[in-house]
Amino acid sequence: MRKRSGQPNEFGIFVPGEPAAAPAPAPAPAPAPEPADDGFKADARDGDGDGMVQDGTKHERPAPKRTKKRGK
Length: 72
Description:
- There is one protein chain.
- By secondary structure, the chain is largely without helices or strands.
- 0% of the residues lie in helices and 6% in strands.
- It contains no helices and two strands.
- It has a two-stranded antiparallel ribbon with strand order 1-2.
- The N and C termini lie far apart (81 Å).
């Protein structure tokens, strides 16, 4: 069977002519913005035992309370 070319008319009949143009590709999505590296560490640890994490930075905050392990 021969491949159809052209566009169908208003009655759905293919009329000889130029092949249909391919649809334009979708535009590429915009790249995600880079996260700001401002030094915040969500899992910061209290290294000197003073009860504060990230000492001397704008992210200085009280250290999370430690829970005792069961059975010890």
